[in-house]
Predict the structure.
Amino acid sequence: MSDPPVQSVLRALSILRELNRQQNTTVDQLHQATLLPKPTIMRLLGTLKTAGLVTKGERGIGYRVTSDVQALSAGFHGGPLVAEAGRPWASDLTRRLRWPAAIAVPDGGRIAISVSTAASSTVSPFHATIGVRHSLVTRALGRAYLAWCPEEELRILLRLLAASSDPEDNPPKLERVVREMIAEVRGQGYALRDPKVEPRSSDTVAVPILLGGSVAGTIGLTYFRSAVSQAALVEELVPALKQASREITAAIERLQRNMPEAP
């Protein structure tokens, strides 16, 4: 017979899961999501802060995870680090441009959203999107990743896509479709959602977050097609995204310099 679970550990993990779903989470939100008493939540937050896994949110509102949570899962490919470095810049984009921003990281043969400002945008086409996994082939955040990732990684991703049963991931003549998409995206300097996939009333524009010779993640803005002209897209949204991407790369590099070396 296995030992009974340690309830305090399960409670702490439930807190971490909720914190990871949005950029800032208040004690009230944690209470509603976990049904844990608020005094218990505060004690767990204090413990997680001492462990370096949680910190106060922006402007002291709520709580959020830190980049140290990456030590809990080496297979997460740096997602928490990209999220910590990029969250302020995603928030700034939404504050200035109003449209919701998202930062995504690779997750197997898909791209997963690790930061979203949908809750902060009054004109967001979507509700909460944290943790949602999108196609690398048809969705802007995924296309931006495929278009700039190293060739060796691209070949691995093509094999993963070829094994998928989802037609968005594995269309007929997959490699030809992907290669043509990459040429188009790199030529224009940004990625858009495939116009044939839903929802067609909105679109997403995305660019890579480059780090060394690889792609740490992607950042994008989602908007209603009827509200953003082609001129506004290329003259306002794309330059803002590219600037945010450069700032996030610099922030990641600063965080990496301050991290203790692995034993």
